[in-house]
Amino acid sequence: IIAYWSVPLLLALTPPGFTLTQAVRMDGTVMLVTLGIAAVTGLLFGLAPALSLSRYDVAEAFKDDGARTTAGRGAGLLRRALVIGEVVLCTVLLIGAGLLIQTFVRLRAVDPGFDPRGVLRARMAMQGDRYASPQDLNRFYEDGLERIRRIPGVRSAAVVNGLPIARALNLNVDILDWPEEEGAERVQDALIDWRYATTDYFETMGIPVVAGRGFSAADRAGAPPVAVVSEEFARRFFQGTSALGRHVRVFDQDGALRIVGIVKDLKEGGLKGETIPVMYVPVAQTHAAAIKTTHSYFQVNWVVRADSAGAVLARRIEEEIRALDPRQPFSSFATMSEVKESAMAAERFQMTLLGAFAGIGLLLAAAGIYGLIAYSVAQRRREFGIRIALGATGDRILRDVVRSGAMLSLIGVALGCLAAFALSRTIEGFVWGVSTLDPLTFGAVAALLVAVAAVASFVPALRAVRLNGVSALLNRG
């Protein structure tokens, strides 16, 4: 029943592309096999103590301990080993969940390099020949943006062929003005992210211009070709010297592009990705070959900053562009905050999944410790009665019982930490911004498990404290 409800929930939380291509659903055969395995497991674990009890010597039982109702010390060791194993597994799962939670928290705090608040993204496919020429494309963008800017509440609008935190067109760039300073070396791997953008793109996205300027209306077709680059571009290719006024080339048709501005680095290819050098060129100066190349692989994005970036704004934008060209629809809408959140979808799903397993493991470990301590109290009922009759205090008995549960948890936690240490390299690819051997996580998990074990041991310990000494002596069971 739990699986019937949990599987659809997990599928709803699964990010696109995370699962296999075939449909995942509840399957009757799998359910029957699972039930069969559970039944066989129950029979096997129930049969083992039954067989042991059938071979038990009654005389030895009386010699060993008249109050004992089990098959002896061997069975007790097995029960303790099983409980310790539960704690070990729970420790590993909790440490993994803790590391993923820290990863998720750190990713949420990452500065993407732009201000996503109040920005709506509208995606559009531009494949085909209708807007293959630079003149037709620029006219369409200018007319569409003019219509969008007239919508009440809109502050600015722009078009770009690739958004931050997403894949972009990777191209090689030729640096025409290498720094000549002593010690400067030419960078051989000159691979960059190339993007075209309209005039108000940096303002709309809230991307700070740290040096020089952004694009202006003067950067039109026929004007001297210009480019704006990221801080990483300037650092990597100009090695501490000023990039402003230097010349670069990507397409032969461009000729030499003069760098007129430097903007803040963005998180390209995901929040965990490395900083990639980026070069922006004005749409108005982009030639047909570059347009065809980028439109073949990527959709363009209309970005709009407004007082309210919601469904009402999306509907108004769609109406304005449909009035301009009914045959050029948008494929999707999303706020940039949602785009940023979607970049963490895999981490959120992994955290949720492992956290759920860790929670189940914690419940099982607590139940195992409770069951073992409760059984131990029942076994030692006569012993506790004698101790109480001889004057033992309730606090002393309470400490003794709780200590036995705590010792089991400490052994399990120690072994679990060793297992997590051994698996640290395996989970390196799932965490970010935190060490897989983070002492805070290991310490917090250890403290949690010891506390849970103490609580699980406390209830049966109270039962031992409340024993009546005379009754316990008279009733040996």
Biggest pleated sheet? 8 strands, mixed
Radius of gyration: 34 Å
Structural shape: elongated
Poorly predicted segments? 64-71
Beta-strand residue percentage: 5-15%
Number of strands: 12
**Whole-Å distance between the termini?**
38 Å
- The percent range for helix content is 40-55%
**Chain-averaged pLDDT:** 82
SSE run:
HHHHEHEEEEHEEHEEEHEHEHHHHHH
Explain briefly what this protein structure is:
By secondary structure, this protein is of the alpha+beta class.
What are its keywords?
477 residues, alpha+beta, 4-stranded antiparallel β-sheet
Topology record:
Elements: H1 2-13, H2 28-54, H3 58-64, H4 73-108, E1 119-124, H5 134-149, E2 154-160, E3 169-172, E4 174-175, E5 191-197, H6 201-205, E6 209-212, E7 226-230, H7 231-238, E8 247-249, E9 257-263, E10 278-282, H8 288-297, E11 300-306, H9 311-324, E12 332-335, H10 336-342, H11 345-379, H12 381-389, H13 394-422, H14 439-465, H15 469-474
Helix pairs in contact: 4-11, 4-13, 4-14, 5-9, 11-13, 11-14, 13-14
Care to describe what's here?
The chain has 477 residues and is of the alpha+beta class. Helices cover 52% and strands 13% of the residues. It has 15 helices and 12 strands. The strands form 2 sheets. Strands 3, 4, 5, 6, 7, 8, 9 and 10 form an 8-stranded mixed sheet that branches. A 4-stranded antiparallel sheet has the order 2-11-1-12. About 2% of the residues have low confidence.
